[in-house]
Amino acid sequence: MELSKNFDHRAAEEKWYQHWLDKKYFHSEPDERESYTVVIPPPNVTGVLHMGHCLNNTIQDVLVRRARMQGKNACWVPGTDHASIATEAKVVHMLREKGIAKSSLSRDEFLSYAWEWKEKFGGIILQQLRKMGCSLDWDRTSFTMDPDYYQSVISVFIDLYNKGFIYRGKRMINWDVKALTVLSDEEVIRRKTDQQLYHLRYAIDGSDEFITIATVRPETIMGDTAICVHPDDERYKHLHGKFALVPLINRRIPIITDDYVTVEFGTGALKVTPAHDMNDYQLGQKHNLEVVDIFNDNGTLSEAAQIYIGEDRFAARKKIVAELTEKGILVKTEAYSSEVGYSERTDAVVEPRLSLQWWVDMKKIYGPALDAVIKDDIQFYPAKFKNLYRHWMENIKDWCISRQLWWGHRIPAWYDAQGRFVVAATKEEAAKLFADKYSEAPGELSQDEDCLDTWFSSWLWPFEVFKGYSNPGNADIKYYYPTQALVTAPEIIFFWVARMIMAGYEYMGEKPFSHVYFTGIVRDKQGRKMSKSL
Prior knowledge:
The chain is an alpha+beta fold. The protein is 32% helix and 23% strand.
């Protein structure tokens, strides 16, 4: 038989990888040897893997193969993440190309398309890892929406709610007007954007005088509930306690004082729109101002705006500026550059708004996770990320965990017709709890429409791949947990790493891993991070 002059890597790789699988060389079972465990950062089932995953998984494979050569019982657990918002955005786009609107489908119909997407791309991802030669224990493959995993996520929600760590409250959030869901701060991309600063005259009620404010968002003036000036600004001292009229709609609003205002910026007078700006909301809370939400979920003007109802916010801006100009209210415009938030998933301009959501009170849970890293019980490589982690943890904010999506773990809250609710795994359990809580039998109960933030499931990953929560004390969790090393990207240090450490201490009483290695980030020629979305 004549040998080919060219080496056919495909034949060699497929032959030997299949041989390794047939011999179960990558499979691990608990025994008397020292364990060495690595859990894969589960790729999102939004598309196919790219060079960033290739780098990450190569490093993991090196660590795992080295451990085997040292005589350790190495277990590298594979799996994928359902990635609620990212996958739902992909499925919605795919349906749109077929001429199908999500709004025309029932929840179950939409989910059937999402599961088809998962089976297609989840399967491709796992095959790609095989093609790379990764020595993963395929018998242990997990998915964040496997039935056992799903139940654990729901049980953790119920447990944290019963402990008082989870609450439902109306607070300022980032809203994606395209995906129609709340976003976390980390899912908002801040970009320097060229804008216009509009100087507008507000008439002082009961006089011929005006006060001029500067804003980049004239379409929000209908939501103004105050004008704020610095208490020491001599220009406006005679206006303290007086009232101004909002242009175009003539709502009477107070002129208040607060040292939050920067005298040198713009005109030194600030319009306060508590429903549509994070800082304005805090100012409004401090001064007990009315909150007027002038936007619908899709970014069009609501009836509360009184004018241009139903118009898109940016189309309304043009019409409002034209009317302000025509009526002599617009004094001038000037070029202005500032950071604007964009949705990481849909690229829509994010709208800050007040919304009723579910939250985790992070100050009740973060302590052990901070101590573990500061005391080097968990070591970071490179060590510089330790300071970044410390800063974020010491300034931690409550975590908004609800998402207005269908693909994901559905929130186990049940409501009656009056909006009263209980938290339970099933409708039957909810009915019993409802009767106990309200001393009456409920009518028809309906489950919360929202799903949980993706990271609320993946923070259980290091122990739930071994059924550590759903089957505590089993042989696998005793042997393989805590794991040894995590290899991941630095941009998810807060999204995922910090939260896994919190969950590990809360539910296993122990750290989830000893070492975290942060890889470099693979970028394209424009400097953008490699991304399946791109």
